[in-house]
Here is the input.
Amino acid sequence: MKEIAEILKEKGLKVTPQRLAIYSMLKNTTSHPTAEKIYNTITQCNPSISLATVYKTLDCFVSCGLIKELNITCEYSNYDANTINHQHIMCTCCKRVFDLDTIDDSAIKKAVANKTGFIVNDEQVVFYGICPECQKKNSN
Ligand SMILES: [Zn+2]
Ligand SMILES: [Zn+2]
Here is the structure.
């Protein structure tokens, strides 16, 4: 894997300790954390970072295409360092968001492009349901 600092530089971003901490945390998780979750994790090792800095840094990462902001619920955003198109499934019970990277939806994309005349260059497909763990908990 490329150095985190290199990746930031390639995107034309100045490398700061906060940016390194936030990006490497996102890079090392597939849990699609919210800004608050990122903040809570980061401040364990970097107590000087403020929540405002976390939000600002995430905005900056999103606008330069380094990470994706997922609008799965309208209450908050989930962040994903995996910028390759993939679908998500969210448990409406525990609110966790999982990757569904095994589904090839190129046929759907083609159909959408044909139907609308759009050049389709992005997508957000989200499925909602109850995860196996929550199903077990609920049946007890
Ligand atoms: Zn669940
Ligand atoms: Zn994802």
